[in-house]
Amino acid sequence: MLKKQIISFLLVGIINTIVGYSLYALFIYLGFSYILSVLFATILGVLFNFKTIGKFVFKSKSDNAILKFILVYSIVFVVNIVIIKIFKGYEFNDYLSGLFAIIPASAISFILNKYYVFKDKKK
Q: Which of 19, 20, 70, 89 has the most beta carbons within 10 angstroms of its beta carbon?
């Protein structure tokens, strides 16, 4: 089951990442700082991601976990900012720094969503 969830998370995550990164890149292009760009992309992506991750990855139809999901995305937001700042310190631009942050932020998102937001209550 874990393997199936990881594969589903990756497939759904591709769509969510395309949407989220496109929003981030758009805000950078419009002249926003990387912090505001991540913030706005995160805010706009939360509801979309909550539905897609909940329904297609963890088979949840409930909206009760939205506050936990928002907390997880707040943590992922901070992780994104820290990673981007680290890469910017090595002279990478905002676009590449944001791209490099995707993998570790996604891994943290999966773990927190699986074991905190959408944890199996049958156990």
A: 20
Give the model confidence (pLDDT) of 37-85 as tens digits.
999 998 898 888 898 888 888 888 788 889 999 999 999 999 999 999 9
Q: Which domain holds residue 100?
A: 2-117
Domains of the chain: total: 1
At 44 the three-state DSSP class reads: helix
Q: Going by C-beta distance under 8 Å and a sequence separation of 6 or more, which residues neighbour residue 114?
A: 5, 58
| Long-range pairs of 64-71 with CB within 8 A, sequence gap ≥ 24 | 65/117, 65/118, 68/116, 68/117, 69/113, 69/117, 70/46
pTM of the model: 0.79
